[in-house]
Every structure is written in structure tokens, then in C-alpha cells.
Amino acid sequence: MSGSPDPGGARDAGQRQRIIEAAYECVRRWGIAKTTVEDAARQAGVSRATVYRYFPGGRDELVGAVVSWEKLRFFARLYEEVHDSESLEEVMERGIVFARQALVEHEVLQRVLQTEPGLLITKLTVDAGLVVDLVSGFLAPYLERHGLAEGVDVGEASDFLARMILSYIASPGRYDLTDEDQVRDLVRGELLAGIVAP
Amino acid sequence: MSTANASSSASSSLVPIGSRADRERSGLSGRRPSRRGASGTSVWLARGAIDARDGRAGVQLPWRVRLVDAMLDCVARQGLAKTTLDDVARQAGCSRATLYRVFPGGKDALFAAAVDTEVARLFSSLAVAMGQAADLADALVVGISGAAECIEGHQALSYLLQHEPELVLERISFAGMDQILDGASSLLSPFLARWLDPGEASRIAEWATRIVVSYLVCPREDLHLSDPRDARRIVNTFVLPAVAACMAGGRQPGGVDGLQVLPESPAVVENQLSRATT
């Protein structure tokens, strides 16, 4: 397997995955700009040609895949953390606290945000709409189960909440999101005030 | 100094429409067709402030503004990376030597000045619109839709978002966004404080800023904040009920206030804005 990849190798999800993880390791060590296809290939133990077979766009596409993969892992961890919540309030409060902490403690993210913020944020923003839809789709059933204020549309409300949650997680502004009382205030007093039935 | 000039420098930063300064600069301000309405107001407001100073301070300030505007024109056409100082000097109708005299820091300093100027212009136009609002809902609607309109119609910004997004996104994400939230909330909360106590005004101003930036970074096809009807629906559905709940509960607005300076009076803010543009 590690020798010459079979011609149908583009379908080998395991190989693609190994290259992404190898490239992530390179980004962790050297940052985005200094990570080359060559580095990723060496780290993954494959040839440059193999990397190009999976990522025809080369370095740029590979780095994009790394950022998307790590972002999905982040939201998968978030899902694991909160999916057993029983109420809309609980899922939002636990989600915001966990996500903010995970983001602050994400060593690679924080380092690259310091050294190459423009590059990273551009990659992170590429599919911002997808992330909003992901969070919004996750929240919608909680909204449906909760009594909503008159005239509030579940789709519009979950989209709005997803946007605001993502905004607060990335930039808390006036809120200290490690403080559960403040998060409770934010969720119940601010974000949900117009959405849930009084 | 002519009488027109004297009266302009004696007046406040709010130079009336149709003043000599305004007419003189129509050649400059007419070149960005997107700058209509409220944002158009901001252009002459900012320029008026500069003009007033110029009457006292000599010839350097107009060059500063003309160079900033030339920079914005070049960026709107070809982006920042491709814009050279020669391009900017040519656009402004001055020599490279003049450019360096006004901006010894060169391209970086000029771009930073352009960003600061446009931010100040945005806030002054919002201040004018929000200052005329009849009630809190109106103030929020004109603030949100005015900001969205101004940002969407901004040609230099649009070019950068499309071709050099890192220059913009870096400033409106993570820590950069925290700075914007802090600035926007202290500059705009005075205009909400006509109806709210200062802490609450600052919280709501920050919230409105998040709303505008979220739909800018990630637009939604069926919702355009620049349309006052859409902005009003968001304000009525999500924001005002939270204000009402906070007031009815008699509780303190959420969050830490340490980040926020106490809102200044609108007059003080206007003064700060006009200083920021010079």
C-alpha cells in the first residue's frame, strides 16, 4: 500500500486522510505558508505525484482540505459534547462554553492566528455558509420542540441563532464565556428573548 | 481667507450641504456612484471637518484626504497588491515626493489611513442617521441597514473581499472583530442611549454590529440587511424583545462592562469622528 498506489487510488479515502493528517502536522510545525506539497508527501510517506493525484490544486487545495478537516473535527467534538442536552437553553449554553474553551485552547489555531491570520481566516471563511447551516440544522429540532413566540419562523430563528453563536464563540466581545452566569444571561436574556414563548 | 472659508472654519464639523466646501469637492465625491444617501452625507461631513481645519492649518490636510481617496479609487479598480505609489500619486494629481511628505510610511501608512478614514466616514454617516431616528426601533433599523448599504456599496471593499479577502477578513474575525465590537459599541451606543441606559445601549450596539458583520461575511439570499424591511424584521423579531425583557426584569444587561468605556455624548463622539478623519 505504501509503495505505488493503485490507479484507482483517488478513491482511497484512507490514503487521502493520511495525507491531510500529515499536512496538518506540517502546518502545526511550520505554519501555513511554509508547508509545501513536498513536506506533506515526505511526512505521509508518499510521493509528490500521489499528493497531486488527491489534490490536483496542489498546496493551496491541500491546505484548504486541512483547514476544512480540522474545522469539521472541531464541530464533531462540539456535537459529541452537547448532543445529549435536553433543552434549547442547555444545548446553547453548554455548546457556547465548550466551543469557546476549545477554540482558546486549540494550540495550532491560536498559533497560526498569531502568525498568519489572513491566510487562515480566509480558508476558514471559505465555507462559512456551510457552518451556519450545520449549526442551524442542529438547533432546528430543539427549536421545534420548544414553544416559540408567535410569528417566529423556525428556519429564520435557527439561522439567526447559528450566526450569533458563531460570532460569540469567535469574538466574545463584552462577555466572559468561561463564566456560566454570563453565558446564561447571553443565551436566555439576549439570544432567545424574542424566540421562545414567554 | 475668504468669508466663505472663514465661516466654514468657524462652524462645527457639520458643514451644511451646499457650502462652498461641498461644491468644491463635488468633483471628488461624485466619482463613487455607490456613495449615495446616508453614506454620501458622510463623505461631505468628513470632508467638511477637514476643510474647517484646513482653514487654520495650511495646505497639508487636503493632500491627505485626496491621497486617501486616490488610494481608495486605485484599490477599487485593481486591489491593494497591484496598486503602486505612482498609481496613487497620478490619481491624486501630485508627485511621489508630495505623497511621501504626507505619508512618510508609504503604502502601508496610506492604506491604514484609508481604512481609518472609511471607518470614520461610516460611523459619521450612521451617527447622522441614528441621531435623527424617532425611536429605538428606528435607530436600530437605520443603523443596521445604513451600515449594510454602505458596506455592500463600497467598491474598494468589494474588490478586496473578492480578490484579496485576507486583508478584510483578518480585521473582522476573532480578535479583530473584538476590536470592532468595542469601537462600534462605544461610538454608536450614545445614539441608543436616548432610550436605554448606558450599559444596555452598549450591549445592543455591540449586538447590532455582530448582525451586520455576520450577514456581510456570509450573505443569505433571502435576507438583505440593506433593505430596511429586512433589517426591521430582524430588529423586531430578535433584538427588541431582548431589550423589553431586560427592562421588564429590571436586571443589569449581560456581559462585563469593563471592556466598555461609558458612552460619550453624541457631540463628543462627532468631535472624535472628525478628528479621526484628519
Question: Summarize this, please?
Answer:
Chain A is mainly α. Helices cover 70% and strands 0% of the residues of chain A.
Note down, in words, how this protein is organized:
The complex is a heterodimer of chains A (198) and B (278). Chain A is mainly alpha-helical and 198 residues long. Chain A folds into two domains: 7-56, Arc Repressor Mutant, subunit A; 66-191, Tetracycline Repressor, domain 2 (Orthogonal Bundle). In chain A, 70% of the residues lie in helices and 0% in strands. Chain A is built from ten helices and no strands. Chain A has helices at 13-30, 37-44, 48-54, 59-82, 88-104, 107-115, 117-125, 128-145, 154-170, 180-191. The radius of gyration of chain A is 20 Å and the shape is elongated. Residues 1-5 of chain A have low confidence and may be disordered. Chain B is 72% helix and 0% strand. Chain B has two domains: 12-112, no CATH class; 133-276, no CATH class. In chain B, helix 5 packs across helix 6 and helix 5 (60-78) packs across helix 8 (106-131). Chain B is elongated, with a radius of gyration of 19 Å. Chain B is mainly alpha-helical and 278 residues long. The chains are: A mainly alpha (198), B mainly alpha (278). The A-B interface holds A 113, 117-119, 121-122, 124-125, 128-129, 132, 149, 151-152, 156-157, 159-160, 163-164, 166-168, 170-176, 182, 185-186, 189-191, 193-195 and B 165-167, 169-170, 173-178, 181-182, 185, 202-203, 206-207, 210-211, 213-215, 217-218, 220, 223, 234, 237-242, 244-246, 249, 251, 253-257, 259-260.
List keywords for this structure.
A: 198 residues, mainly alpha, Arc Repressor Mutant, subunit A, Tetracycline Repressor, domain 2, 2 domains, 70% helix, elongated, B: mainly alpha, 15 helices, 72% helix
| Structural shape of chain A | elongated
Our Rg estimate of chain B from Cα atoms comes to 19 Å
Distance N to C terminus of chain B:
21 Å
Strand content of the residues of chain B, in percent? under 5%
Report mean pLDDT of chain A, rounded to a whole number.
93
Please identify the structural class of chain B as seen in this structure. mainly alpha
Overall 3D geometry of chain B?
Answer: elongated
As residue ranges, the low-confidence spans of chain A are 1-5
Number of discrete domains of chain A: 2
- Determine the most extensive contact between two protein chains: A-B, 39 and 46 residues
* H-E order of chain A: HHHHHHHHHH
Radius of gyration of chain A: 20 Å
Relative strand content of chain A? under 5%
